[in-house]
Amino acid sequence: MSGPRPVRAPRGSELSARGWQQEAALRMLHNNLDPEVAEHPDDLVVYGGTGRAARDWPSFDALTRTLRTLHDDETLLVQSGRPVGVLTTHEWAPRVLLANSNLVGEWATWEEFRRLEQLGLTMYGQMTAGSWIYIGTQGILQGTYETFAAVAAKRFGGTLAGTITLTAGLGGMGGAQPLAVTMNGGVVICVDCDPRAIARRIEHGYLDVRADSLEDALRQAEEAKAARRPLSIGVLGNAAEAVPRLLALGAPIDIVTDQTSAHDPLAYLPLGTAFDGMAEEARRDPAAFTARARESMARHVAAMVGFQDAGAEVFDYGNSIRGEARLAGYERAFDFPGFVPAYIRPLFCEGKGPFRWAALSGDPRDIAATDRAVLDLFPENESLARWIRLAGERVRFQGLPARICWLGYGERDRAGERFNDMVASGELAAPVVIGRDHLDCGSVASPYRETEAMRDGSDAIADWPLLNAMVNVASGASWVSLHHGGGVGMGRSLHAGQVTVADGTRLAGEKIRRVLTNDPGMGVIRHVDAGYETAEHVASARGVRVPMREE
Ligand code: NAD
């Protein structure tokens, strides 16, 4: 049966495939498309503009069929969301290898990608959509929480209490912003042109209220700011209009960022277009739509720069809006920094990044037990403990219960091995998958985001994600993916992902130890190579071998 229908991952400890590695891939593919998880499941779109889990419904059916019958010494090949082959390998090899949206350099443009997509030859995999480890908005929540905590530490004495943040985009990723700001004690105004996005975030507990108008939003924000009361306010509108208007009103905004899907000009609503007519207009004349979207982004970014000139803390939140605005001719687009060089790179130097896991049992008690295990393993890490406690209280699971927390080199393997032991002892009801975002320390080349302003100028060197994927294959990951264009769009990034299954066996324990050591180890190595002292200290203190630093 091929065609749109509701999809949900099987739960429990019974296998429908030949082993847990295959079962895990099957459940995570289905979980990505669970209506609770995916933004537009009927179109197989998980998040991030048009980030898909499978190319089309016949491909989805073939993936499901093949994963159910795949042997422990076979590997399924997936080319941009379509299963294209099954090869005999061995039990240490990944069960699935995926390559999504990759194009040869000179052809790596949205125009060419869309031509090929229309021919049915490719799909956009984003980061965790096409690599089957998206866990809903929580996936980005901790990174967003950490980013706003870093903003608070840098500018506002360690808390956002008494500040107003202005942002736009309440989609799959952007929807984490309101909760991340209020968790840091602040007030936030979030503009989105899609009423469903606002309603969804309120329903999921990520957004507190919806204002009737921009003026109403500002009034509520000012009241909450004065009372130092955390509050998140959604407001319907076009950011290209709302942000300049708030600037003109002299609104007392302290922090400005944006997470509209600006990486894809066909997913950004231009001024003068009604939201309901957007998809049709983009389809009818993509070139004209792109030009208009870029012009609107230029206005939006110019207003962000205006807020910076007025003293606000302003940063690009990884959606390429500066690059698009510059393409429209706005020269000051890069006056404000990206969030990675501004706040995240020191963490990358320690091999830290978005470690995540999901309970294949479907039982939230499994996540509660792993939460306790993490607290027990890293008692000295106070911010981790605060996050785990807040997440336990405030994060509503979407699809299979899951958790994310940022762990570094020498930490991820310990957590992974503990989880595997918990599966083996029966403390958890079923195996756990352990993966991460591609937005990680050693897995991505993305000059507008993760590798912006590298110390040695190596921003666009893309050997690192390729090495990362090969390292994870060589170390025993259960599935490994290599993508192009995630986060920031075509031609602007290459990145790799891995997922490893803790099924309680000794073999899984050995694979986990290698993968979860070597994968963050790539982050340390990458940053040592680029000349970061913190990474050098981490490498020598924790025993990461870097030949050029050895006698
Ligand atoms: P999404 O497509 O799920 O949501 C985007 C939202 O922007 C939608 O709700 C849409 O209605 C809204 N929007 C579009 N144009 C608008 C406009 N002119 N005014 C107001 N609202 C508008 O995307 P997402 O998954 O939330 O990702 C958002 C962006 O962040 C993407 O560009 C993505 O690549 C990037 N991203 C950032 C990170 C990060 O760590 N910072 C991680 C992943 C993705």
Automatic annotation (TrEMBL):
GO cellular component: cytoplasm
GO molecular function: urocanate hydratase activity
NCBIfam families named in the record: hutU, PRK05414.1
Binding site for NAD(+): 48-49, 126, 172-174, 192, 238-239, 259-263, 268-269, 317, 487
GO biological process: L-histidine catabolic process to glutamate and formamide; L-histidine catabolic process to glutamate and formate
Protein name: Urocanate hydratase
Top-level EC class: lyase
Database matches in PANTHER family: UROCANATE HYDRATASE
Similarity-based family: Belongs to the urocanase family.
CC cofactor note: Binds 1 NAD(+) per subunit.
Catalytic activities: 4-imidazolone-5-propanoate = trans-urocanate + H2O
Cofactor: NAD(+)
Sequence ranges assigned to domain Urocanase N-terminal in this UniProt record: 7-133
Domain Urocanase C-terminal, chain residue ranges per copy: 346-539
Catalytic site positions: C405
